[in-house]
Amino acid sequence: MKFASVALFLALIAFAYARELQLAEPCDEDICKAPMCRCSSVNIPGGLAPRDTPQFVTLTFDDAVTVSNIATYRSLLYNRKNKNNCPIGTTFFVTHEYTDYTIVNELYNRGFEIALHSISHKADQEYWRDASYERLMREIGDQKHQVAHFANIPINSIHGLRSPFLQMSGNTTYQMMASADLTYDLSWPTIKYTNPGLWPYTLHYQSIQDCIIPPCPTASLPGTWIIPMISWSDLEGGPCSMVDTCYYNPGPDNEEGWFNLILKNFERHYLNNRAPFGFFIHEWYVRINPGLGRALTRFLDMINNLNDVFMVNANEVINWVQNPITVDQYAKRQCKSWTPSQCRQTACNGITGNHTEKIYYMRVCRNCPRVYPWLNNPLGE
Ligand SMILES: *[C@@H]1O[C@H](CO)[C@@H](O)[C@H](O)[C@H]1NC(C)=O
Ligand SMILES: *[C@@H]1O[C@H](CO)[C@@H](O)[C@H](O)[C@H]1NC(C)=O
Ligand SMILES: [Zn+2]
């Protein structure tokens, strides 16, 4: 009894202490070590030489997964393998509205990663910039349960976040991520550390990363990894963190131009410190730029034929950074495995929510929700 109350007391102190944020101190590589900690730096994990380092490529798609964009994903990604014969990875940052959860289930069953991008995706930068811990728990923390529920995928397969409009809310975003048990954030652009590129790191200590879309975290926030969005350079050298924001681009039908642009950006990583190469894009942008679509296919065909390049789910990059091994060892490893998950496909027609007048059509892997799921009622009960 006495022991229990002392333990409770200590737990309460630990809790209060954890809520009180401390300013992050400069990072000391002798203290901050893998697998739990890593200083922000351009050094290759494990002190590997570039030629011994696997070049990871993280292709990501944002927003709702629907019957219209799945066609692109199927033709671009399905049955594709890395040179070591393991299936490729791609990460989907899914938003709730209009998402077809039976398709989310399909993507998961193909070995792709399902990650979070908010329930509402509200088109208001300040809403995200000024978001409180509570708001982010409703938008992101609850979305984790929502996606796992409707797509019937394991909740512990969901690790990542991309904030809408890449707008984080300083320390608060990472406090929320720690509570929601999320592993990594892939929303923070860098234009300073592109050559050589910034490797993923944790927030135990001060980050050296440039703050492009403030507010950025300055507290010590253990738990979360940052995968920096290393900017591309467009045709005039302007930075773009998402491919669809490259302002000076080759134009919709120019396959050769797009291929060269992709290659040039890729080589900045591959021929240097091999920081993970991000290809961050929206499906609609590929669709309205057929030349880019063809160039992307060509690029993937090319890298899928290189011994030291691996297209992986973003969370696999974190696993490697936590436990770096040489490219030879990596190529020989067993492929990732996952347990396929059933989908009892159900079409829910004409369901209404109470956040809007809209009528929704929704497909899920379970019984239909009572109302259209939304903030504060993520399961639509
Ligand atoms: C983050 O936390 C630190 C340490 O408490 C504080 O100094 C800083 O102002 C906070 N940043 C924001 C944007 O709230
Ligand atoms: C909307 O639904 C939620 C959850 O059922 C409820 O708490 C809230 O009061 C409802 N709002 C309106 C305006 O009906
Ligand atoms: Zn988005």
From TrEMBL:
Transmembrane segments: none
UniProt signal peptide: 1-18
Gene Ontology annotations of biological process type: carbohydrate metabolic process
Keyword terms: Signal
Molecular function as annotated in GO: hydrolase activity, acting on carbon-nitrogen (but not peptide) bonds
SUPFAM superfamilies xrefs: Glycoside hydrolase/deacetylase
Residue stretches in coiled coil: none
Annotated InterPro entries: CE4 (IPR052740), Glyco_hydro/deAcase_b/a-brl (IPR011330), NODB_dom (IPR002509)
Keyword Flavoprotein tagged: no
The NodB homology domain, residue ranges: 53-178
Protein name per the record: Chitin deacetylase 8
Organism: Vanessa tameamea
Gene designation: LOC113401923
